C-alpha cells in the first residue's frame, strides 16, 4: 500500500540498510514522541493559575532526579542497540567483499559518469572492453565489484535503489560491490557537490536478464582488427601439364 511512496529496494543489501534506518527511526521516534507529550503535559499541568505560587525546584531531590536518570539509562541501552546493528551492517556491506561474477570501472568527472564494462570475455582491461557515458549495464542476480575513480574533484557514486553511496576521491581507486535483484532501469546520481554542473551529473543503471545483457555486449563490443599475417612462404609454381600425341 505504501510502496509508491518509497524508493524501490533492488540490491542484496538494501534491506539491511532499510531495516537499520527503520530501527533508528522507531527508537528515536519513540523517545521524541514521549518527550514531547510529557513536555506539553507539564506545561498544561503547571500553568500559571490565580492563587497558586510558583515553586523553586533545584532538581537535586531524588524523586525529581529519577525523571532524568531512568530515561537516561534506557536511552543509553537504545544507543548500544543501534551501534551494534550499525556495525553489523557496516561489516556486511563495506568490509566484506564477496566473490565477483564481473568487475566494472566507474569514473566520475565534471560532470559526467563514465562506465567501463568487460566485453564478451568478462575480463576488465582487455581489448573488448566497452566504455560508455551515462549508462551502466549489469545483469540481475549477479555480484559485481566496482572500481571507483575520479579524474578531477570529489564526487559521490549514488544508486538510490541499491542504497549504495560511495565517495570518489581523486588519486584513489575505491573498490566496492553490489548485487542487483531485479531487472529495470534506475537513476545514478552524484551526491557530492562538485561544481556548477553538479545537479545535472546523472546517469542510469540498466539491470538486464543474461540474454538481454549478452545481446547488448555483442552490439556494443568494439571491433578488434585481426588482419591475417602476410605469408612469407613462396607459393609453389603451377605444374605444367604434359601433352601426348599418337603416331599414325
From TrEMBL:
EC number(s) stated in the UniProt entry for this protein: 7.1.1.9
Pfam family, one: COX2
GO CC, alphabetical: membrane
Subcellular location: Membrane
Origin superkingdom: Bacteria
Residues covered by the Cytochrome oxidase subunit II copper A binding domain: 99-219
TM regions (residue ranges): 20-44, 70-91
Keywords tagged on the record: Copper, Electron transport, Membrane, Metal-binding, Translocase, Transmembrane, Transmembrane helix, Transport
One GO MF term attached to the UniProt entry: copper ion binding
Membrane topology (UniProt): Multi-pass membrane protein
GO BP annotation list: ATP synthesis coupled electron transport
Ranges where the record places region Disordered: 226-248
Family the entry assigns: Belongs to the cytochrome c oxidase subunit 2 family.
Protein name, as recorded: cytochrome-c oxidase
Provenance organism: Eiseniibacteriota bacterium
Organism lineage string: Bacteria, Candidatus Eiseniibacteriota
